[in-house]
Amino acid sequence: MRSMPMPAPGSGCVPDVDPVAARSPAAIAAFGLWLRWYCARNFHAVRLSRTGLPPDLAGRPLIICANHPSWWDPALFILVSRALLRDRIGYGPMDQAGLAKYRFFRRLGVFGIAPDTPQGAARFLQLGTRLLADRRTALWVTAEGHFTDPRRRPVRLRPGVAHLARRVPGAAILPLAIELAFWNERRPEALLRFGAPIPTGPERSVTEWTGLLEAALTGTMDALAAESMARDPGLFLALVRGRSGVGGVYDLWRHAAALARGQHFDASHQGSEW
Asked: pTM of the predicted model, to two decimals?
């Protein structure tokens, strides 16, 4: 048996592991259930644009190319995957220093890379190419590479996904826009929208692919921003619903007042539950 490579003392990195062997469907199912509860406690709702739903791309491996506005992004990936892409086998890269702190994530299909290093780029391409050889794979990538405000323009992506697009013909790339917004409730809304699929192939250079992906993700983010500003929940499919209202003594008083008037109590600020 080949011995597992050990990190250098003090490096804070996890040993390289095979993400296919480490991934556990049972752990993903359990974590997905906990995640629904956790998101319901922290968001008013997690919403996916009705005009930006992922198309049926059965038989083709997927690369989901997302912006990276917050710490919540990987959790939202898992929610969307469990809700709409259950037939897919999900994987995603993560800074190996961060993965050292959250080693359980390896059971969820997360693999470590060293960002901004030749070794990290090589590992991402090697693993990405191997994983995408399985047509059931969905590779989730926060292609900006670091936390970036969704309003920042121009959108700039690292070239890793562009390299994969050239190496893995027959796959499809789906832009995914993410935005966290406060509407009319105490808790924020987590909003997501998919863009149109882009077929992969070697016809474009890495520079051309990067420009194409930046433009596609920018358009998807702009469309989501317009829907977010409309503040219309009817534009979205609710994947998770949290609680409305202020909570505590104030909502208890409002509830008592509604009962005294013989009215149904609705805790939402709008006066009708979304």
From this structure: 0.85
